[in-house]
Amino acid sequence: MLDNINFHEFIIRSIAVLVAIIPHEMAHGFAAYLCGDETAKNDGRLSLNPLHHLDPIGTICLIFFKFGWAKPVMINPNNFRDRKKGTFFVAIAGVLTNFILAIISVIILKHMHLNEFMQELLLSIFWFNIILGVFNLIPIPPLDGSKILFSFLPLKYEYYLIKYERYGYIILLLLIMSSTLDKILVPMVNFMINLIGKIV
């Protein structure tokens, strides 16, 4: 695995992963706080400290295999002023943050004269934010896409999201191992790249 990536690439990918993951997780926690739940705030998840957000195995997978995960942000929907709206905003906050960071990185690349290292870094930040944002839109628990979907359904269906969430990990693992995930992600990634190209 290490033979396929040199130290220069490792540094760039590591920084890009931090830029993608930490704001994503902070956005979840901050959205929950704005919606009335202080669980994430009390857990220290509104911090820029990577140690509060990174899952060691998930981070390594993201650096080397371009998919991975962070520590889940704990929230209590019962504290939301509006449970349905709160669930939606908390779920979408991380994804939107990734796409905003991708847009910012493209704008900087386009309008500033940068050295080669910064160009590679910003390009990597762009890719990891796009991939993380798109990946989380897949409507399979525990990904954000499933919570966005269930926020539009009656509350009684939230029981099924909680009940079957543990099976979502198995489904995701099977998708990854069978290369089916690529068939799902590639069209979504291309769509987002084209959309950001039009926006910028």
In words, what does this structure look like?
The structure is a single chain. The protein has helices at residues 7-34, 39-42, 56-65, 83-111, 116-136, 144-150, 158-177, 180-199. By secondary structure, the protein is mainly α. α1 packs antiparallel against α4. The chain is globular, with a radius of gyration of 17 Å. The termini are far apart. The relative contact order is 0.12. The model has no long low-confidence stretch (mean pLDDT 88).
Give the arrangement of secondary structure elements.
Blueprint: H1 7-34, H2 39-42, H3 56-65, H4 83-111, H5 116-136, H6 144-150, H7 158-177, H8 180-199
Helix pairs in contact: 1-3, 1-4, 1-5, 4-5, 4-6, 5-8
Low-pLDDT runs: none
Tally of strands: 0
**What's the end-to-end separation, in Å?**
36 Å
Whole-number radius of gyration? Answer: 17 Å
Specify the biggest β-sheet.
none
H/I helix tally? 8
